[in-house]
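Fold this complex.
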Amino acid sequence: MSLYVKFIWFTFMTMLVSSLIGFFAMNIYYDLNLKQDNNDKNLAIAQSFASFVEEGPAERADASLELLGESGYQLYVTSGTEVLRYGGSYRNESLDEEVISQVLSGEEYNGIRDFPREAFVTGFFANELRNTVGVPVEIDGETYALFLRPNIGLLFQELHWLFGGLAAGIVILSFIGMTIVARFLITPISTLTVAAEEMTGESFDRPVLIRRKDEIGRLADRFVAMRAQMERSISKRKEFVHHVSHDIQSPLHTIQSSLALLEKSPIHKQKEIQEVIGEEVNRISLLTNQLLTLASFDQEELETFERVTVGKQVQESVERLRYVFEEKEHAVTIKAEDAVVKGNAILLQTVWENLLTNAAKYSDPGGMISVKVWVEGADVAVRVKDNGVGMSETEIERAFDRFYRADEARAQKGSGLGLSIVKEIIDLHQGEIRIESTPNEGTLVEVRLQSID
Amino acid sequence: MIRILAVDDDRRMVDFVAGELRQAGYEVVKAHNGDEALALLATETVDLAVVDVMMPGMDGFSLTRILREEHGVSVILLTARHHIEDKERGFSAGSDDYLVKPFEAKELLFRVKAVLRRYDRSMEEPLSLGTLHIDRRSYEIRSENGTMLIPLKEFELLSLFAANPQQVLSRDQIIERIWGLDFTGDEQTVNVHIKRLRGRLMEFAPDVKIVTVRGVGYKIEVAR
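Structure:
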C-alpha cells in the first residue's frame, strides 16, 4: 500500500474512531449531567402549559394544544382510552398503562430523567413516548394525562444542515489537507528512493534537492554525505582491484612467456629462466601475503593490544631476516634499548619486517643498514637507516599511498603495499612515521610510538 | 655427508623441506610424526632435525626435548605465524633456531647452514681485538656501537685476520682460506670484500683497521 493510501486510510480511521469516542463521551455526559436539567425544564413547561389550558375556556383547549404542537413540542394527550396527538407522533409509543393511570391520578412523570442509558441511543434525541415528561391536565371537567417533549426534528432541522455541512466540510478538508501533508512528506522520500535505487547501479549523480531543516532534511543531508563517501570508497576499491589485478597479471604474463621460452631454450639458459619464474612467483606470493595483512585489519586481531617489548622484537626481526641481508651482502648494525609499548605484537612485527626488507631491497649489494631503538621522553623511537638508492621529495610524499612504487624500473621488486600497510599499523597505534631521504645517499625511516614505561 | 631429519604431519611441507635440502646437497630422511621420527633414530643417525611444532600425537616441543637430550641432535622448529610464544617454548625445549611459516627456501637453507656451522664452531672461543668482539658462534660482532651482523664471507675474512693479528696475509692465502681452492672469481672479489669490511669497521669499531702492506697483502691493526 502506498503512503498516500495509508495517509487517507489513517485520516478516515482517526475521524471514525474520534467520532465514536466523542459520541460515547457525550452520551455519558448527557446521562450524568444534562438529563435531569432537561427533564426539569420540560416538566416546568408542561406544568405551566397545563395550568394555561386549565385556566382558559374549555372550547379553546384544543386550539391551545394545537398551537403548542406547532411551536415545537410533541404532545400526547390521553384520557386512558382516547388519544390525542399534536405536533407529530412518537416513533415508539409504548408506555406502561400504569404510568398513564399514575399521571391521571395526579402524579408527575419524569420519563426524560428516568430514560435508561443505552450505548447507541442518546436520550436527548430518542423520539419515544417513554422519553417524555407527563403531567395531569383537566379539560372541560375531565382529567387527561399530557406527555410532551421537544420536537427535535422540527427545532433543529436547520441546525442539522449546519452541523452536517460542517462535518462534511471538516471531513473533506481534512482529506485534502492530509493529502497535501502526505505529498510534502512523500515527495522527498520518493526523491531519496530513486537516488538510492540508482546507487545500486553505481550511479551517484542524481541531484537530491531537499533543503529542509526538519528530520527529512537531516535524512537527506546524511544520505547525500553517505552517498559521496560510498562513491569515494567504491572508486577507491575499483582502483585497488585494478592495481591488484594488474600486479597479479603482469608476473603471470612473465611466467607464461618464460614457460614458453623454457621449452626452446638450451640447458644453460633454462636455469636463468627458472629463476625469473621463481622471482615472479615470489612477487605474487608477497602481494597476496600483504593483501591478507590488509584484510586482517578488519578483524579481531586489532582488539588485542598487549605489552610489546619493541627492542627485543626489532632484534628478532633482524635475526629472522638475516638471510635477506646475507643474500645482498648487507651488514646490519643494531643497537636496541628495552623499550615497551602497548600494541599488537604481530602487526608491529610486520612493521619492522617491512622497514628492514625495504632497506635491504633498496640498497645496492654490500650496503650498510643501521637499526636503533631507544626511549626518548614519552616516545619509543625506532630508526632504520640505509645507504641505499634513496628517494626524491615526491617519492617520499607518495610513499604511503597504496600501490605506489618509486619508479617503474624498481617496480619489479615490491608490491607497493608495504609502506601503506606500515602506515596503517602505525596510525592504529597512534604513532608517527617519517621518512628522510636523499637520492643515492640513503633513506632514514623513523617510527615513534608511545612508551608505557 | 650431513644428514637431516624432516618431521611434519603435512606431507607437502616435508616434501618441500626435503626437496630443497637435497638440492642443496644434504641427505634427508623424512618422518610424519614424533613416533616415526624416534623409530627412525633407532637405526640411523642425523646431524640436524627440522621439526614442525603442531603435530598430532607427540608435539614438536616434546620431540625436540628428546632429540636434544637423548640423541644430541640440533633442532630447527617450524612455527606458525601468530604464535610468538611457540618460539619461547621452543628455545626452552632446546631448539637451536626457529622458522616461521610460510618461509622461503632461501631462509630454510640459511638457517640450516647457520645451525650446522654453529655446531661446528661450538668449540671456538670468541675473539677480541681492541673494542671489537667477534662471536664466532653467532656470526655477530660487537662493539660499544652495538651489534653488527655481517655477511658470512666478510665475517670469515675478519675472523681470519683477527685470529692472526700479527700476520700479513697475501691475496692467495686469503682466497684459499676463505673461498677454497675451487674459487672461480678474480682478485677483484677480495678487494671488494676488504673494502666493504674497512667501511664497516670505520663506523663500527674505528680503532680496528685493515691495512694494506704494499706488494705483500693485508694485515689487521689496532690503534692504541
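Chain B has two domains: 3-121, 127-222.
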